[in-house]
């Protein structure tokens, strides 16, 4: 069996996992793939999180991508970080930078097993803040400055490529170089709140082509988390495994312990189990029916006869699912344009699956209260008394 | 480039590298460089695990039962592991 087929058939343990530690977030990015905002009261406790880390150590999952929400808002964040490091589970965590003060930066600089990834989605404040919120660009750059001042080596700058920032790739690279950081760019998925903005934010076909050329040119010096493998159909394969790893070599643990096939598929359809079950995370990974299905040989469906199927493997499952396309057909951003044609032909009867889990903060209505006393939570009670 | 690596003498797994056996071979993860490599056969895993006890990597290959005809490809695999410091000289 070729290595790619071995991976498609699933490994004894994930190569890495994504672990969203909390749905709580002080930002409200329009494209948030986990629809984060409010903390979920069922969040894993410190003891439960440590039990998961023990399982990861036993399974030899060498590193976890920690995210959220904003993971640093968890009160036990640093405790969990130290615990993971002490148990041979490397951590790379994503942050908006708001809580990376000088003390946090110094603490991170002193640690061996921790990588930090600061998110920006524009190389200028205007482009970034339109997606991530006012002030978020300066906040992120401030964190990078503090990390550099503390001597933290080679943080990562994480960028989701959008129609608005696709022309800024060189500028992102320049920002990364300025802070001694490594650039990581990933694909915008129509997941979570991303589903609401995908039509307006996802790169055009022309931009995708330029992105592919840019990635080829920069090779392994720019990280992608293997996120653009669907673009390999343009020609030469991009660095990486070039396959959909969902439930096969990766998966997601969400803040309440639910295990999903991948970070971009927080939906009932891709829920494999929960780490709180007696079988634990290891049992879910090994025995879940969903994962068994994802690891079984699959037909390429409509893509099978395409000469490029070997290169793109049909693209991203989550991207198809959340745009209402069949899972055994082309990716919505298929390099050959097949996805675009399908999207255009989508009838009104196609139901686009709504995200099953939503922790977005509901913003208060913009209109002012009718009376001043309406602001008082006891107003009604007092009126009746 | 691989051909230039001198594989003479005693070698061992880098102390920061962990091996995880898999059906196809093994994953090798370097906690220092964060680099992940794939050992593409169980026999290569045996070779790597036997490095420290062998006088040199080729002897480790023979001890693990690598057929003479396959030695060049194992040599290349080991040279790649050496370049990425998954294995180091003792």
Question: Secondary structure elements and their pairing?
Answer:
The complex is a heterodimer of chains A (385) and B (90).
Chain A: H1 3-8, E1 16-20, H2 46-59, E2 63-67, H3 77-86, E3 90-95, H4 102-109, E4 114-119, H5 125-132, H6 136-150, E5 156-161, H7 169-178, E6 182-187, H8 194-201, H9 205-218, E7 252-253, E8 258-260, E9 271-274, H10 280-287, H11 289-295, H12 309-312, H13 317-321, H14 338-345, H15 379-384
Parallel strand pairs in A: 1-2, 1-7, 2-3, 3-4, 4-5, 5-6
Antiparallel strand pairs in A: 7-8, 8-9
Helix pairs in contact in A: 4-6
Chain B: E1 11-13, E2 17-22, E3 25-30, E4 36-39, H1 42-50, H2 57-63, H3 71-83, E5 87-89
Antiparallel strand pairs in B: 1-5, 2-3, 3-4
Helix pairs in contact in B: 1-2, 2-3
Provide structural commentary.
The complex is a heterodimer of chains A (385) and B (90). With 385 residues, chain A is an alpha/beta fold. Chain A has helices at residues 3-8, 46-59, 77-86, 102-109, 125-132, 136-150, 169-178, 194-201, 205-218, 280-287, 289-295, 309-312, 317-321, 338-345, 379-384, and strands at 16-20, 63-67, 90-95, 114-119, 156-161, 182-187, 252-253, 258-260, 271-274. A 9-stranded mixed beta sheet of chain A has the order 6-5-4-3-2-1-7-8-9. The termini of chain A are far apart. With 90 residues, chain B is of the alpha+beta class. In chain B, helix 1 (42-50) crosses helix 2. Chain B has a 3-stranded antiparallel beta sheet, with helices on one face. Chain B has a two-stranded antiparallel sheet with strand order 1-5. Chain B is 32% helix and 24% strand. Chain B has a single domain, classed as Outer Surface Protein A, domain 3 (Alpha-Beta Complex). Chain B has 3 helices and 5 strands, in the order ββββαααβ. Classes of the chains: A alpha/beta (385), B alpha+beta (90).
Q: What's a concise summary of this model?
A:
Chain A has 385 residues and is of the alpha/beta class.
